[in-house]
Amino acid sequence: MPLTLRGSCRCGAVGFSLESHTPVPYQLCYCSICRKTAGGGGYAINIMGDAGTLKVEGETSIGVFRAELCDDDGACETSSGQRRFCTGCGTALWMYDPSWPELVHPFASAIDTDLPVPEEKTHLMLRFKASWVEPDIGPNDQRFDEYPVESIEAWHRKRGLWID
Ligand SMILES: [Zn+2]
Ligand SMILES: [Zn+2]
Asked: Is 2.170.150.70 the CATH number for 3-158?
């Protein structure tokens, strides 16, 4: 049975739940979007669940942010990723991208259910981290300048942490 994750915003206007086979909060993203919208420590932690199981209360209080992404040559486009947040209190809730309609990526910071403690972490998008942030790299942690090669699903399966 997948784990049921329950989440909420700080003011209580939004509540949500979803099923997750991959609930380990091991993936720390230092990109400028994550750290500015959801990452006071310099990163946000993204987990993954099944979009088809997402149930939402307080839909009218949810805003959508689609970030502008610019490459190193200065060419910009609007991200297809939809970052949902509470318009009342600003809590970052989850990321949904229609390019992968079966997946939803809640921010671990919005989840109230106890999550498994990661024994090793993946630090990603390190080339975009703020200069003052000193990542806390554990002995088994992996580091990536941009995206890791291993998907969230593959990471869980390889370590026997995938929940059927
Ligand atoms: Zn709120
Ligand atoms: Zn990010």
From this structure: yes
Average pLDDT over residues 12-31: 97
Band the pLDDT of 121: cuts 50, 70, 90. very high
Model confidence band, residue 71 (pLDDT cutoffs 50, 70, 90) = confident
Counting ligands in written order, the one closest to the CA of 87 is 1
Residue 59, Ramachandran bin (φ over 0: left; ψ between -120 and 50: alpha; else beta): alpha
In the chain, domain spans? 3-158
**How close is the Cα of 31 to the center of ligand 2, in Å?**
4
